[in-house]
Amino acid sequence: MHRLMCIISAILIYLLTVTLSGQTISADSLTIDAAVIKAIENNPGLKILREEINALESIKIQSGLIPNPEFGIEVENIFGDDEFSGFEGSEITAIISQDILLAGKISKRERVAEISVSLAEWDYEEKRLELITSVRKIFLQALLTQKLIEKNNELINISEEFIANLNERVQAGKISPAEVSRAKIILNSLKMDLTRLEAEYFTSISKLESLIYDPGMSIKSLKGTIEYTLETPSYDSLLFQLADHPALKRFESEYGILQAIIDFENSKSIPDLTISAGYRRHNGINANTFVLGASI
Q1: Integer distance in angstroms from the first to the last C-alpha of the chain?
Q2: What is the predicted pLDDT for the residue at 68?
């Protein structure tokens, strides 16, 4: 089931990448989907986990194979006395031996490797979801701050125009200069809020850039909307989805690998069978024979 989830996730990411391939992920039009894709592609932790999964897949393939046969050559009755002084009376044996693993050692060893892959996949999925959550959270914070800065700038422009009109009315003697002073206090408050919002925006953008982990990208503005319809899921649906949480699935795989290791270690109590076959040359009598053997 977890592999199907990983495959579906990979397909969705690929389709989203194709959709955005015609768009340049630039500093002026960074969307939340583009930020998530870029962060997944560049995250060092995810890259390491992907390499670990590939390595474990290779180990799994190797663990399902039978041991390699062994080839050896043995020379007897050489460099002795009389007729054994040279190679005249020697015996040369070439033999091939093959270990046969009993008690299902290969399948049990392969099971250990298979669950190791599953464990690494759940680690990757958990890390990926954490990264997506962090990127989306910080992106929305930065986007909200960006929109507040835009609204604040509009209010400042309106306030400055309003103060200019008030100055004209003061010069005309229609209102008191105190009205201008009160309007300037409001303007100064708006400018202070703008400075604070710009600092918050800079902090959020810095965090977002660190998550995207692309030294060549400098984010200037964000593109998107913060309007959405909130539908509170039911308790039963949340409980049902909780069973598929990567953290819980990882514990299932961890328990499974411990049980698989126990089964594999128990199988080692049964010795393996080794069979051999070979060719022997008797130089002393100028004859050839074959050799067969089995050991346990």
Answers
A1: 41
A2: 93
Asked if 132 contacts 37 with a C-beta cutoff of 8 angstroms, the reply is: no
Chain centroid to Cα 119, Å, comes to: 12
Question: Can you tell me the distance from the alpha carbon of 102 to that of 268, in angstroms, rounded to the nearest whole number?
Answer: 9
Spatial distance between the Cα atoms of 296 and 294, rounded to a whole number of angstroms: 7
CB atoms within 10 A of CB 212: 25
Please, what is the average pLDDT of the chain? 84
Tell me the CA distances in angstroms from 214 to 5, 31, 132, one per residue in order.
28, 15, 16
The Cα–Cα gap between 197 and 187 comes to: 15
Beta-bridge partners for 123: none
* Cβ pair 213, 22 in contact under 8 A: no
pLDDT digits (tens, 9 = 90+) for 58-86: 999 999 999 999 999 998 877 766 666 66
Lowest mean pLDDT among 24-33, 96-105, 110-119, 280-289: 24-33
* Phi, psi dihedral angles at 268 (to 5 degrees): -70, -15
- Supply φ then ψ for residue 217, to 5 degrees: -105, 130
Q: Which two tokens stand for residue 151?
A: 């609204």
Q: Tell me the chain's radius of gyration from C-alpha atoms.
A: 37
| pTM of the entire predicted model | 0.71
